[in-house]
Write a structure and sequence with these properties.
Layout (H helix, E strand, L loop, with lengths): L2 H35 L6 H52 L4 H52 L2
């Protein structure tokens, strides 16, 4: 899936989440009001789900976010180590060059390669962030959609 497709899908899921959340909140407010009017006929099962479902969905979302952030941190650390090694290699090539032209060529080669890697890493980072956003939103989205369907009158 392309980053644009991922962003579009996540934006759509966000819109669906907002709509479903509004529907669920409205219906659950009715359930709470009904329970306050007649406590003996209150929908205790639904009222108990209001908290437990949120905790479950938020826990799954937080887990996805934490796992993704840790993976992203590892990827970033690997890129930093790679760039440090490349810079050290370029510095060594400049310092051991036989003449200024050879030094400039070594430095220019490093700059061109570093810029290419930076662009590539930037795109990969952006794609990873979009994927992380979708994975973090998914459990909350799924719970809200399921609740909206279940509570629909």
């Amino acid at each position: 899936m392309t980053p644009i497709d991922q962003a579009t899908r996540t934006a759509r899921a966000g819109q669906e989440l907002l709509q479903a959340s509004g529907d669920v909140i409205a219906r659950r407010l009715e359930i709470v009001a009904d329970g306050l009017r007649d406590p003996l006929r209150a929908d205790i099962r639904e009222m108990s789900l209001m908290g437990s479902e949120k905790v479950e969905a938020l826990t799954a979302s937080a887990t996805a976010g934490l796992n993704g952030a840790m993976s992203l941190a590892a990827t970033t650390a690997a890129a930093a180590a790679r760039e440090t090694a490349a810079a050290q290699g370029a510095l060594n090539a400049v310092l051991t060059a036989r003449n200024p032209a050879e030094a400039a060529l070594a430095q220019g080669g490093w700059v061109a390669a570093a810029m290419g890697r930076a662009v590539s890493d930037g795109w990969a980072f952006g794609a990873t962030m979009l994927k992380l956003q979708a994975e973090t939103l998914a459990p909350i989205h799924a719970a809200a959609i399921a609740n909206a369907k279940r509570l629909k009158r």
